[in-house]
Amino acid sequence: MPKTNLKMHAVVAPTPTVIASAYDESGRADACTLAFYMVCSHKPPCVAIAINATARRKTLASILASGAFALGFPGVDQMRGADYLGVESGYNIDKLAALGWSATPGRELNVPVIDQLPVSLECAVVHTVTIGSHTQITGEVKNIQADEEMLDERGKIDLALTRPIIYDEESFSYWSLDENVGRAFALGAELRKEIRGE
Amino acid sequence: MPKTNLKMHAVVAPTPTVIASAYDESGRADACTLAFYMVCSHKPPCVAIAINATARRKTLASILASGAFALGFPGVDQMRGADYLGVESGYNIDKLAALGWSATPGRELNVPVIDQLPVSLECAVVHTVTIGSHTQITGEVKNIQADEEMLDERGKIDLALTRPIIYDEESFSYWSLDENVGRAFALGAELRKEIRGE
Predict the structure, then answer these.
(1) pLDDT digits (tens, 9 = 90+) for A113-172
(2) Which of residues 152-171 of A touch B (CB under 8 A)?
(3) Going by fewer Cβ within 10 Å, which terminus of chain A is more open, N or C?
């Protein structure tokens, strides 16, 4: 199949939508919505986010000053508020208050855990590096909080309940998840058996 | 809503599924499937991946030795092969050959672009750091290739056509995308107007 070269740009694949939050020096909770997020270590559990460092970003400043952040995972029900947190600046207004959202200090770290989000991490900054336009921040996860009703019978987070929103920069839109289409590791292990002739 | 603390673990949110590939010193293409991926700069376009550094990973070794990698985005049609690339080791077998997949050298970098994947990036390694169990690799995107039939009429990648697979480590399964549920930036800008009373 012939491949076409595309105009250079950054985001070609779907990415999860996350909300980073941190207390500023006056104790106000800042929050901004991001699509640049990955898990980056299993042991200890760490996550990385990247935030534009070429613009004035109040949440970035508060994360770097406080050395900690919360990371919340909005669902479809929080999509409009999440999108707002990505377009308004905390230098203009108290965004969480404007939304009618609230935050509770973390149980392990002094970070604002947004009450309205179904799942949140409390993260301690362990590394930062600025490459290109963005600062990459690695946070060690010190606690995970979830709404009890978002868990399945084994106590695992159930994506059919949290209904995460997936960001698509090609069409500037959000997607919901459809169906569970396959078992990870089982599909590959079965194929490995076939290939090995076991 | 009362929050429950969860047992500490790494992956609580859905993540895109990507396939990293690189040539080894003999010119063989190695490839492995990852869920730890993010965009980390708009200008220049950069992406970051994290690969377990506590295990012998042939693709990781080849990326670090060659200083470059391709990053492919499998769709639902490639799910079984993608899962296989995550469970088998390149030290045991030539995985791409075993799948009947093939790779073509990149147009900008000496990286194996997997022919069967609808969208691929060619990336030059610009930064690495090991934190916890994983090495984080930042790559500057030097070229983007896509199958022409995966593009919409504006030449943008159409997720309804590429049908990306989203990895869920809570249930060890893959999800497909459902529907476009909202316009990014438009939802938030509308709400900002309401809040500002404009």
Answers:
(1) 999 999 999 999 999 999 999 999 999 999 999 999 999 999 999 999 999 999 999 999
(2) 152, 155-159, 164-171
(3) C
Instruction: State the amino acid at position A44 in one-letter form.
Output: P
Does A151 reach chain B within 8 Å, measured CB to CB? Answer: yes
Distance CA A21, CA B145 (A): 35
Amino acid at A63: I
- At residue A144, the 3 state secondary structure works out as strand
Helix, strand or coil, per DSSP, at residue B10: coil
B52 and A CB contact within 8 Å:
yes
Given a contact cutoff of 8 angstroms between Cβ atoms, the answer to whether B12 and B5 are in contact is no
A155: left (phi over 0), alpha (psi -120 to 50) or beta: left
Comparing C-alpha atoms, which of A115, A128, A132 is closest to residue A68?
A128
Mutate to test the interface with B, among A7, A9, A12 (most CBs of B within 10 A): A12
* Cβ-proximal residues to B15 (8 Å cutoff; 6+ apart), any chain: A16, A38, A39, B35, B36, B37, B166, B167, B169
pTM, two decimals, is: 0.95
Bridge partners (DSSP) listed for residue A174: A167, B182
Which is nearest to B187 in space by CA: A17, A15, A163, A79?
A: A79
Strand, coil or helix: B95: helix
Two structure tokens written together for A90: 């905390």
**Chain A residues with CB-CB distance to B195 below 8 A:** 84, 88, 93, 98-99
* Residue A76 to residue B181, Cβ atoms within 8 A: yes
d(CA B109, CA B63): 12
pLDDT in tens, B124-161: 999 999 999 999 999 999 999 999 999 999 999 999 99
Q: Report A:56-85 residues touching B (Cβ under 8 A).
A: 73, 76, 79-85
